[in-house]
Write a structure and sequence with these properties.
The complex is a heterodimer of chains A (114) and B (113). With 114 residues, chain A is mainly β. Chain A contains no helices and 11 strands. In chain A, the strands form 2 sheets. In chain A, strands 2, 4, 5, 6, 9, 10 and 11 form a 7-stranded mixed sheet that branches. Chain A is globular. Chain B is mainly β and 113 residues long. In chain B, strands 2, 4, 5, 9, 10 and 11 form a 6-stranded mixed sheet that branches. In chain B, strands 1-3-8-7-6 form a 5-stranded antiparallel sheet, with no helix packed on it. In chain B, a hairpin with a 4-residue loop joins strand 7 and strand 8. Chain B is globular and about 45 Å long. Classes of the chains: A mainly beta (114), B mainly beta (113). Chains A and B meet through strand 5 and strand 10 of A and strand 4, strand 5 and strand 9 of B.
Chain lengths: 114, 113
């Protein structure tokens, strides 16, 4: 089944403890992206990647890092999480950076930072 | 001005009625348009895409695009309680420096049994 897989689905952590949210897609998509979704603010892009080793900032990149060493994987790293990073996170992928066919989203990761 | 605007709702319709969801966008060169359905706490799911002016039908869903007026709409016929969700309009702006879909804030649809 074609899908984007995120892990974990739920995570509660403490301020300052480094964490990684994994994202993997099995559709050979070139483009991948991370979003956060907050009430009243909608979906906001954190980072995106046009292909392997090509990443760039989205609208809200502060406090996050990403890497794209393999085409299928695009992990999101929070080196020192803070409570304002409590949010619902989605990984998304698309066939190419032209985004002609829209995104396929992962199932989401609900992160709580205390 | 927001790039993609939707009425937040809730839009309440009785079961079996037609639900009409609207979206306007600001970028005239946008080429592709999408409707996503999102249940509370779940991920957005692509239900329709449309690329040219006119109507596109898929089962109970019809997407309508009018590029001259810069709006896109989604009609849901024979609405069911299971259609109750937030519907997100997304636009591909095709700007050279913007590699992302632009999402509206979503319209919450409630279908009353």
């Amino acid at each position: 089944e074609a899908q984007v897989t995120q892990n974990p689905r739920y995570l509660i952590t403490v301020t300052g403890k480094k964490l990684t949210v994994t994202c993997s897609q099995n559709m050979n998509h070139e483009y991948m992206s991370w979003y956060r979704q907050d009430p009243g603010l909608g979906l906001r892009q954190i980072y995106y990647s046009m292909n392997v080793e090509v990443t760039d900032k989205g609208d809200v990149p502060e406090g996050y890092k990403v890497s794209r060493k393999e085409k299928r994987n695009f992990p999101l790293i929070l080196e020192s999480p803070s409570p304002n990073q409590t949010s619902l996170y989605f990984c998304a992928s698309s066939l190419s950076g032209q985004l002609t066919y829209g995104y396929t989203f992962g199932s989401g990761t609900r992160l709580t930072v205390v | 001005q927001k790039e993609v605007e939707q009425n937040s709702g809730p839009l309440s319709v009785p079961e079996g009625a037609i639900a009409s969801l609207n979206c306007t966008y600001s970028d005239r060169v946008s080429q592709s348009f999408f409707w996503y359905r999102q249940y509370s706490g779940k991920s957005p799911e692509l239900i329709m895409s449309i690329y040219s002016n006119g109507d596109k039908e898929d089962g109970r869903f019809t997407a309508q695009l009018n590029k001259a007026s810069q709006y896109v709409s989604l009609l849901i016929r024979d609405s069911q309680p299971s259609d109750s969700a937030t519907y997100l309009c997304a636009v591909n702006p095709r700007m050279d420096s913007s590699y992302k879909l632009i999402f509206g804030s979503g319209t919450r649809l409630l279908v009353r049994p």
